[in-house]
Amino acid sequence: MKRSIIPVAGAALLAALVTFASSSCDTVYDDDLQPCPTGVSLHFVYDYNMEYANAFPAKVDCITLYVFDSEGKHVTTCTETSDVLSREDYRMQIDLDEGDYRFIAYGGLACQAHSFAVGQEPKPGTHWSELSVEMVHDNLTSAQKLHDFYYGTAEGKVEENAYKEVTLRLMKNTNNLRVVLQQVNGKPLSDEDFTFAVTDDNTLFDNSNNLTANGTVTYSPWSQGCQSVGENEGEVTVAYAEFSTSRLVKEESHRPRLSIRRASDGENIIDIPLIDYLLLLKSDAYSEMGEQEFLDRESEWSLIFFLDDRGEWLKTQIVVNGWVVRLNGMVIEF
């Protein structure tokens, strides 16, 4: 089977070429003519975000596409890592025989700085159910800033003498979490006085992007420090830590926790179910959006905790992504 990948410079040009080619093949018979190309023209879209806007050209810097036939068997693998991905009119054009196909795409796998890898590269005939992707980690620990990772799938039917336009939508599987500690009376805090960690079992994805058991990973901050905010007499020094994590899922088998300990005695001052606190941001404005959809669309998180004079957490309010959430009377299972 002949296969090729052709970056198309413009959607209008592609349409004109396909129209011309189709009409030529349909109306002209000549043994010397080459057969019309048959295949797909894939349009990648990343609009599964809180802005509902296509950010693929700005965010995805490499793409890997696995193609499977109607029996679920691997046909070919295509990759693109060049700057062509940043063009609004980019299409991945692939020659394929007639038939039904499943397309599975990953953004971030083929980049030099990738943070996720395929378990076993599919070979011709490999069934799509065998596909899996794992986050790169160091013996179930991670302190790195993960390279952004995306997943998407689509199906399409290829017909004779035509290129099928297929849209493949991606979702983001990585998150950045910034945690800030602030002393309520303005006393300066140092990040060196605390130990920060996030734990979860979220490093292994199956062929449908579901998380599967792979052991609990401990995320340490990829960045931490102190920062002064405010001006003059109102200036305070806060401690912060930033985590980079894999997909966050609200399931009984996946219960990520955020823990912050005092370095002096190792005592936990904060130990919370992370998902429950992030979902405090899901306001009435997103009442029709499911909890998992909300977690998947949002990928940048910030939490601000307030400490009293003894360095204990004041469990009366928390700031989530800039919104103050009052916890008085709220019951959250710890």
Automatic annotation (TrEMBL):
Keyword Transcription regulation annotated: no
Residues annotated as signal peptide: 1-21
A Pfam short name: Mfa2
Lineage of producing organism: Bacteria, Pseudomonadati, Bacteroidota, Bacteroidia, Bacteroidales
GO cellular component: cell outer membrane
Keyword entries, A-Z: Cell outer membrane, Lipoprotein, Membrane, Palmitate, Signal
Protein name: Lipoprotein
Principal location listed in the UniProt entry: membrane
InterPro entries named among the record's database cross-references: FimB/Mfa2/Mfa3
Lipoprotein as UniProt keyword: yes
Localization per Swiss-Prot or TrEMBL: Cell outer membrane
Family assignment from sequence similarity: Belongs to the bacteroidetes fimbrillin superfamily. FimB/Mfa2 family.
Top-level taxon of the source organism: Bacteria
Organism for this UniProt entry: Phocaeicola salanitronis (strain DSM 18170 / JCM 13657 / CCUG 60908 / BL78)
